[in-house]
Amino acid sequence: MIRREFILGALAAIAAAPAIAAPPAGARRPNIVFILADDMGYGDAAAYGQRKIATPNIDRLAREGMLFTQGYAGAPVCGPSRCALMTGLHTGHARIRDNTAIAGGKTGTKGGGTQLWRRPNLLPEDRTVAQYLQAAGYRTGLMGKWHLDGFEANATPPKFGFDEFKGWLIQFDTTPGYWPAQRVHGDKLVDIPENANGRHGRYEPFMVTDDAIDFIERHREAPFFLYTAYNSPHSPFTAPDFGPYADRAGWADDEKTYAAMIHYLDQGIGRLLDKLASTGLERDTVIFFASDNGPRSEPTVQQTRVADFFDSNGGLTGYKRDMYEGGIRDPWIVRWPGKVAAGAVTDVPVYFPDFLPTALDLAGAAPERTDGVSLKPLLVDPGSRPAERLLYWEFYDPEFRQAARWGKWKAVRLTRGGPLELYDLARDPKESTNLAARHPDIVARMAAGMAREHVASAEYPDPGPATTTKPGKG
Predict the structure, then answer these.
(1) Which helix (H) or strand (E) holds 79?
(2) Contacts of 238 by beta carbon, 8 Å cutoff, 6+ apart
(3) For the chain, is the Cβ count within 10 Å smaller at the N or the C terminus?
(4) How would you label 356-366 residue by residue, b for 16+ Cβ within 10 Å and e otherwise?
(5) In angstroms, what CA-CA distances link 367 with 177, 206, 372?
(6) For the segment 105-154, what is each residue's pLDDT rounded down to a tens digit?
(7) What is the pLDDT of residues 36-60, one digit of tens each?
(8) What is the dihedral of CA 313, 318, 321, 324, to 10 degrees?
């Protein structure tokens, strides 16, 4: 639960705002920057109550923009969450619904191992926000993590609307990690000699920031979409040093390292903000900041201890891979100087499928298909609220699971065909009291909505009473 002292006030509900018209002819369309952290929990930023790690630049985004107290990722792990972000489809409709697939996709190995993994990947018929914005005249760039390629050579960012890509891909074992020996530029592998033979010469988050700044500099005259997808603070715990936490008494080294990883992520965000200011683009740029799922990359003793030491899930129940709030509720901040009121706080529930329609609304374009809604009316008028709607998630590790949010109600189903748990998040954000037996009418309504939103796919067919898949590392 977000700490009470950090909630500046709930917003009054009024009728849904009307559709926003396209920008007038000749008006500059805003640049759009999406900054994505990896496995950063709801409580890992000071703006959301973190007491041990300083995040001055993330806090600056919140202070100068709108903080969402009930913002959600697209899924409880990396791949499907990023798919929802890029395609505007929730995991009942999206191509990628887990880090592994039940069928379809392609098989391959990772990390030099011999175990075969079946990974899903985007297909040519899928459309991303980058493709829409590219068609609308935006220059598009992705710096960092893609995670939608699986083992398919034709599922790389340049094939899905990104004019420029510098980062890493699942299909190349030499490119992931914090000290990669190689990186992908476009569709080509490029050596990182400073990291050759296991050396730790260039830290990947620093490369992401450098490449993002270079992209801004080169495209300052035209509207651009920049997707800046950091690895941090995903496992393994590694950083150039302990940063400002080297002398923290009583902290274990892995706790100091985790804090340093967030420190350097926050510093990178600060450098991006400084670049936008120095180029005069600050007021012409909408910045979104979020994390792709909850904290604790793997359910190990070490990572659980570190997550609990920092209260990374902000007191919510669950971690990454869980359908409870701790697995899917995340930091969500939007800054647009002069348009979004500084210091605004909203409790409107939003999630990753909303980004695509929002970005296209900002660009004066329209999507062909989306499960989200444009948040532009809310951003420019924090007194407005979208019509009440069902937010939906499904996931397949270790078996088919579902969750849904409708107003104050949250439903969770942990087995295919199993009973629904029901929680009143307004009174019980920690999901400690299952109210299903007391509200059969709400349970029936949620169950009907969840059944409607789940559509089986080639990668995730409906096989019967239970579905299992190999757990993929996010």
Answers:
(1) helix 78-87
(2) 178, 179, 200, 257, 261
(3) N
(4) bbbbbbbbebe
(5) 34, 34, 10
(6) 999 998 778 999 999 999 999 999 999 999 999 999 999 999 999 999 99
(7) 999 999 999 999 999 999 999 999 9
(8) -110
DSSP string covering 387-445, please? PP-EEEEEE-SSS-EEEEEETTEEEEE-STT-PPEEEETTT-TT--S--GGG-HHHHHH
Q: How confident is the model at residue 382 (pLDDT cuts 50, 70, 90)?
A: confident
SS3 call for 382: coil
Residue 205: what residue type? P
Domains of the chain, earliest start first: 29-385 (3.40.720.10)
Residue 122 near residue 419 (C-beta atoms within 8 A): no
The DSSP H or E segment spanning 271 is: helix 253-278
CA 192-213-77 angle, 5° bins:
70
User: Where are the strands (E) in 146-262, listed by range?
Assistant: 164-168, 182-185, 188-191, 224-229
Segment 443-454, tens digit of pLDDT: 999 999 999 999
- Cα 237 from Cα 260, distance rounded (Å): 9
Nearest alpha-carbon partner for 86 in 218, 212, 229: 229
The residue with tokens 């969450």 is: 81
The answer, yes or no, to whether the previous bond of 24 is cis (omega within 30 of 0) is no
What is the rounded distance in angstroms from the CA atom of residue 96 to the CA atom of residue 470? 14
DSSP E strand stretches across 99-157 = 106-108, 117-119, 139-145
Cα 93 to its chain centre, rounded Å, is 18
N residues, the chain = 474
The residue type found at 375 is L
Strands 224-229, 31-37: pairing is parallel
For residues 258, 264, 270 and 275, what is the CA-based torsion angle, rounded to 10 degrees? Answer: -150
Q: Please calculate the CA angle 138-284-84 and round it to the nearest 5 degrees.
A: 55
CB-based contacts of 214, cutoff 8 Å, min separation 6:
none
φ and ψ at 79, to 5 degrees?
Answer: -55, -55
